[in-house]
Amino acid sequence: MQQILIDGQKQNIEQIAQRLPSDVEVYSQMYALEMGLNKAIANRTTGKTLVWVKRNDGTNSIKNLVPSDRAAITLMFLLRSPLNTRVYVIGDRYFVICGKFLQVKGQRLGLLFVAQDISYEQQMFSSLVQSLGIVSLVALVIITVAIAIYIRKSLQPLRRISQLAESISVNDLSQARLHLHRAPTEVKELAHTCDKMLDRLAEAWEQQRQFVGNVSHELRTPLTIVQGYLQSVLKRETNLTPTQREALETAAMEAESTIRLLQDLLDLARADAGYLHIRLEPLVLNDLVVEVATMAMQYRSRITLETTSKQILVKADRHRLKQVLLNLIDNAVKYSDPHFAIAIVLDLNVENALIHVCDRGLGIPLTQQHLIFERFYRIDEVRNRSSDCGLGLSIVKTLVDSMGGSVTVRSKLGEGSTFTVTLPSAA
Ligand code: ADP
Questions:
Q1: pLDDT on residue 322
Q2: 122 lines ligand 1 (CB under 6 A)
Q3: Does any ligand 1 atom lie closer than 6 A to the CB of residue 412?
Q4: Is the distance from the beta carbon of residue 389 to the nearest atom of ligand 1 less than 6 Å?
Q5: How far is the CA of 344 from the centre of ligand 1 (A)?
Q6: DSSP β-ladder status, 49-55 and 60-62
Q7: pLDDT of residue 6
Q8: Mutate to test the pocket of ligand 1, among 300, 302, 327, 372 (most ligand atoms within 8 A of CB)
Q9: Which pTM value belongs to this model?
Q10: Is the shortest distance between the CB of 383 and ligand 1 below 6 Å?
Q11: 191-225: b or e for each residue (b if 16 or more CB lie within 10 Å)?
Q12: First and final CA of the chain: distance in angstroms?
C-alpha cells in the first residue's frame, strides 16, 4: 500500500520534470530565458511540490521556498548530481525526489530537481498501520477468548464423563447415566456410547451376581454334607492309621473354609440384591463384646479387652455383629506377630458406640487403606495365606452398613492397625 502511494507521487514528479523544459521554451518566447525559467518554475511549484534548478555556477533558482523550511533547504544543498526517482528522509520529513539535466534549445541550463513532500501521507499511513495493528490485536484477543470459552464449554461434558467414570461403583451401575443435551454432536455420541456401555456393564454385573449367588448356594449344601460325614468319620472311627486321620482332618478343614467362603459369597450376593436378612434388636454392647472376646480367647490367647463401666445400648443384629468382630479379630491375629497382644476396646462418644480392634502388626500402606474394603482385594501375596481370598473386610463393611453403622481403619505400615466399628447408640 505504501508502495502504491509512493509510485503515484513518483509519476507526478517525473511528469513535472519531463514537461518543465517545454514550459521554459514556451515562456522564453515571451520573456528572456532567465525570466522564462523562473516563470516555468513558479508555475509548477505548489505548497507540496518543490522545483528548483541548480545552475552550472552552483546557484539555485527556486520559488516559494519558506525560509524556515530547514528540511527543504538541506535537501537543496545536499543534492548535486542527477538521480533516479527515490524517497529521501530528512528528520521527520519524507520527500520523493527526481533530478535530471535541464536542457532548453540545446543549451544545458543546469540540474533540475523536482521534490514532492509526502510527510503528511506517510504520517497518515503510519497511524493507519498503527490503528490496524491495534484493531487486529484486539480482534485477535477477542477471537482467542471466544475460542477458549467455546472449547471450555464443549469440553465440559467430557469432564462430566470423566467424573462419572471415576466415581461410579457397582451399586449405581444401573442408574448412573449421562444425559447431555447441550454438547457438540461428537461429544453427545461419546456420551451415548458410554451410556450403552454402562447398560451392558450393569447387565453383565447382574448376571455375574446371580451366577455367584446360585453357584454358592448349589455348592454349599453338598459340601456341608461332605463336611458332616468327614467329621463323623473322624469322631467315630478309632482304627484309622495316622496318615488316614491326617488326610481326613485336612479334607475337613478345607471343606470348612470353603463353606465359609461360599457363605460369604452368598451373603454378598444377597446384600447386592437387597435380600440380606438383618434382624435389628436392642442389645447391650458390653455383654456382646465380652462374649466375642471370650470366644476369641479360647483359640487366640493374646486378646485383651477394655470396656467401660457404663452400659452401652445399640440396635444391631447380634449374630451379624459377632461375625463382624470375629472377622476383624481374625485379621488382627493373621497380620500380626504372635508376641503382640490384640486389644478390643469399647468406647462411647456423643452419639455413637465405638468398638476398636487394635493390633501391632504389619500395618496397611496409606494408599491401599480405601481399597481393602473392596471385594477380593488383597494387599500382596506374601502376607496372605492361600486360603485367604480378600472377602472378609467387604463382608464386614456390608454387614456394618446394613446395621446403619460404619467401619474405618487407621494404620501405619510396620506399626499396626486399628479397625473401628461405629454404631449409632440406642440409649
Ligand atoms: P483376607 O481374606 O485376604 O484377609 P480381607 O478382606 O479380610 O481379606 O482383608 C483384605 C486385605 O487387607 C488383606 O489381604 C490384608 O492384606 C489386609 N488386612 C486386613 N486386615 C489387616 C490387619 N489387621 N493388618 C494388616 N493388614 C490387614
A1: 95
A2: no
A3: no
A4: yes
A5: 17
A6: antiparallel
A7: 79
A8: 372
A9: 0.59
A10: yes
A11: beebeeebeeebeeeeeebeebbeebeebbeebee
A12: 92
Query: Could you give the angle at the alpha carbon of 266 between the alpha carbons of 261 and 267, nearest 5°?
Result: 100
Whether residue 264 has its Cβ less than 6 Å from ligand 1: no
What's the maximum distance between 2 C-alpha atoms anywhere in the chain?
161
pLDDT at 390: 86
CA atoms within 13 A on the CB side of 190: 14
How high is the pLDDT of residue 186?
84
Helix (H/G/I), strand (E/B), else coil: 240: coil
Give the residue carrying C-alpha cell 516563470. Answer: 39
32-71: pLDDT as tens digits: 888 888 888 888 888 788 888 888 777 777 665 565 677 7
C-alpha to C-alpha distance for 192 and 389, rounded to whole angstroms: 37
- Proportion of the chain in helix, strand, coil states, percent, rounded to 5: 55, 20, 25
**Which of 267, 300, 335, 359 has the most ligand 1 atoms within 8 A of CB, as the residue to mutate?**
335
Nearest CA to ligand 1 atom 1: 390
Q: How far is CA 29 from CA 22, 37, 45, 106, in A?
A: 11, 11, 21, 15
Helix (H) / strand (E) containing 303: strand 303-306
Could you tell me if the CB of 393 is within 6 A of ligand 1? Answer: yes
52 lines ligand 1 (CB under 6 A): no
Using the atom order of ligand 1, give the atom closest to the CA of residue 357: 23
| 186 CA to centre of ligand 1 in angstroms | 45
> Measuring CA to CA, how many Å separate 403 from each of 109, 153, 345, 421?
120, 44, 20, 11
Residues 6+ apart with CB under 8 A from 56: 108, 109, 110
Decide the pairing of beta strands 303-306 and 342-348. parallel
Q: Which atom of ligand 1 is nearest to the CA of 378?
A: 14
| Residue 39, all three cell numbers | 516563470
Residues of the chain with pLDDT under 50: none
pLDDT value of position 385? 63
What dihedral angle (degrees, nearest 10) is formed by the CA atoms of 316, 318, 320, 322? Answer: 120
Name residue 277's amino acid.
Answer: H
Residue 426 three-state SS = coil
Cβ 361 under 6 angstroms from ligand 1: yes
**Contact by Cβ (8 Å): 173, 209:** no
Question: What's the CA gap between 64 and 395, in Å, rounded?
Answer: 109
Determine if ligand 1 sits within 6 Å of the CB of residue 335: yes
Cβ of 370 less than 6 Å from ligand 1: no
Residue 390 Cα to ligand 1 midpoint, Å, equals 7
For residue 288, the model assigns a pLDDT of: 95
